[in-house]
C-alpha cells in the first residue's frame, strides 16, 4: 500500500532531522524579528520606487563631496559611505532626494549575530553549514511526503481544502496546520536548500566585473551627471550599490551594481564603458534570501515566524501520533493456528487498535487463546470459534491501510469450520461515510458459508465507551466470555444510577416466552428518549442487562420477554407498583427518532416494538410513520392494539402492518417488507429512514431482503444507506 | 613690555596650535581603496598594519570585520592583537568578493620614507589565509601608485584626504 511508504518516509525523515529542525525553527523564529524591527525604522522615503539615479546622485555628490559608496538594502534604505570635510569617516542613512541624514546604521547586534551563526552553521563552520543545508533538504522532502499523505487523506487534489472533521487529537492539528502552512514551509525549505547549494558552490553564482578598455576611455564631451542617459533610466530601487569614482581622473569610473548586472559608467561623458550581466542564479539567490529571511517584507517575516512555530507544533504532534500508534502494537502469545478467538483490526492510526487490544487482553485474562492482528493478515484459522472484526473506515468509505487486502483474502481462505463472527465499526459521525467499511465487512462475512452471526453489527461513534459496552454486552452473552469496557479505553464509569419508581407491572399471567410491560416513573428532567437503553444490575454484580426504552407520556415503558431462568426478566417481573429500582440510562443516540427525516419506517418483532411505541408517542408533528411489527400470536399484539389504533386516529402513525408467525396465515415481518418492496425503495430514495428493532434473526432476514430491494431498485447496496444513517438498527 | 606681549602671543598661539599640530604636522590622512577579487565565499576579514623596519607589527591601522570570533583566523596579526587588543576605533565591516571598500587611514608623517611597510592581511571563513595579501613599502611613490594584491585583494589605491 503506497500510503504506508509515504507515511514511513515521512516519519523516517522527521526522526532523522527533528533535532536540527527544532534548533533551526527556534532560531528562525527569533531571526524573523530582525527584519520586522528593521522595517520599523523610518528610513525608507516616500516614492522611493519612483526615484531615478539622475535625480539623486548629483544631489548626494554635492551634499557629500567625500562620498565613495552608496548602497540600497532590501528594505529600501539608502546608505552612504565616505568621508566628511574633516576627513572623518561618514556612514549614514540619507534621504536620496535631498541628502538629509536620516539616521546612523547600527551594526547587527551581537545577539542576532550569534543567533544567525547558530542558525546557519551551529558554530561548526563548514560542517555545521552542511548539516543545516541537509536539514533544509530533509524538510523539503518531509513537506512533499506530507503533502502526498494529505492529498491521499483528503481523497484527491480537488478535495484538498474540503473540511476536516474537528476533534482535539494531535492528528487533527497536524493535518489542519499542515494545510495552512504548507506553502511557507515549502518556500523556507526550498530557499534554504538553494542557499546551501550556493554556499557549497554547487550552483554557480560567480560574478564577473565588467571589463573596461582603458585605452578607449574618452574624456569628452563633458556632460552633467544629471544628464547621463544610464542614470536617467535606472531606478534607485534596482540598485544594490554604487561605487563612486575614486578620483576625478577619467580612468576612474562609476560602478553600478544592480540586482542583475554590473555596469561601469564614464564619470565625464556618462557613457556605459562595460556591462557584465550576472548569471540567473544570482537573481534566484536574492529571491531565496528574500523568501528565507523575510528581509524585504515585515508581513512575510511574520508569516515565516508563524510557519516556524508550526514546524515545532508538527514535531510535537507528529511524535504524539507516532507514540500513540506504537503503543497500540501488540505481540501475540498464541498463534493464529491455535487460537479459539481471532480479533482482526482495521486501524488507520491505532486508536481502533487500542480497543481491540483491550478485548484481546480480557480474553487472555479469562484464560482463552486469543490472537490479534491486522485485517490484512487474515488467513486460515483452523481452531477459531469466534472472529471479531474491529475496524475503522478511511476517507470515503474505504478500508483503512491495515485492511486493504481483507476483501481479497476472505475469498482466498474459506474457513473449514463454522465461526461466529461479530463486526464492530469505529468511526465518527462527523464524516458522511460513517463506518461504511464496517458495514461492508459485515455484509461480506454474512455471505460466507462458514460464518455465523454472533451479534448484529455495532458501531462506535467517537470512541464512545457506552457504544462499545453495548457491543461488549451483546457479544459476551453470545460467546460466554465476559468482555467489558476496559479501563484503558475508558477511564472509570462514574456509576451514577437513576432511581426509578415502578408505576405498574403486568407480569402476573405471563408465561415463559411471553412478554410483559413495566412502566417506570422517572424524575422530570431525566434526559431520556425512546430508543435509549436502560441497564439494570439484577444481582448487584457485574452482570448487566439492557432493555430498549420507550417513553410514553413521561414514563419509561419496558417490554420484556420472560425467559425461563433469565436473571433480568425474572427480576423485573417481581417488581411491585411503588417499588424503587436503580438503573443506568445509556444514551443511544443513533437510535433516536430521526428529527430530520421526511418519513420513518419502523420494523420490529416481539418486544422490539418498545422504542417504536415511544417514538410514535413523540411524533406530535405527524411525520409520516409506518410500523411493520411481527408477533407470534394475535394475543401479544392485542396488548398494543388499542394504543396503536389511537395513535393512528391522532395521525401519529400513518400505516400499521402486523404480521403473525404462529397463526393460520404464517407471516413474518420480512414477508411484509418483500410485499412492499416498491414502497420501501421509494422511501429510501426520498431520504426516508428505516429503523429496525428486534431479534438478530429477524434483522438478518430483513437486511437480506432490503439488500435485494436496494440493488434492484436503487442501484446502491444497503450499506450505502446504512452509512448515510438511513438504516438504523438496534437488535439483540 | 614688548617681550611680555610676544610671550603671551606665543603662548596663545601654542595653546590653539597644539591640537592642529598633531594632525596637520605629525600625521596625514589617506583615503585607501581596497578592490577585492570576485572570489566566492563569505566576506573577507582584512587588516591593515604598520610594519617597522625589523618586520614587526607596530600599529593596527584598520580592521575590516567586526566579529571578534574570526580574529584568530588572521593568525599573525592576532598574536599582536592579543597583546594590544584596543582596536575598536578602527574597525569596519568585512568586504565581500568583488566589492570595493574605501577607508580613511591615518599615517604619521615621520613613518613615511623611513623604512616602514604597510601590510594587508586577509582571511575568509574556511578558506585560505594570506599573511601578505599585499605588502608595500611606506614611501611617497608607493602611496601614489596602484598596488596589486596576491590573495583576495585585487588592488589597493591611495589618495591624500
UniProtKB/TrEMBL annotation, chain A:
GO terms for molecular function: flavin adenine dinucleotide binding; FMN binding; oxidoreductase activity. Its EC number is 1.6.2.4. Pfam families: Flavodoxin_1, NAD_binding_1, PepSY_TM. It comes from the Bacteria. The chain crosses the membrane at residues 12-33, 130-151, 172-197, 299-323. GO terms for cellular component: cytosol. InterPro entries: Flavdoxin-like, Flavodoxin/NO_synth, Flavoprot_Pyr_Nucl_cyt_Rdtase, Flavoprotein-like_sf, FNR_nucleotide-bd, OxRdtase_FAD/NAD-bd, PepSY-ass_TM, Riboflavin_synthase-like_b-brl. Keywords: Flavoprotein, Membrane, Transmembrane, Transmembrane helix. The keyword rRNA-binding does not apply. Residues 341-480 form the Flavodoxin-like domain. PANTHER family: NADPH--CYTOCHROME P450 REDUCTASE, NITRIC OXIDE SYNTHASE-RELATED. This is NADPH--hemoprotein reductase. It comes from Pedobacter quisquiliarum.
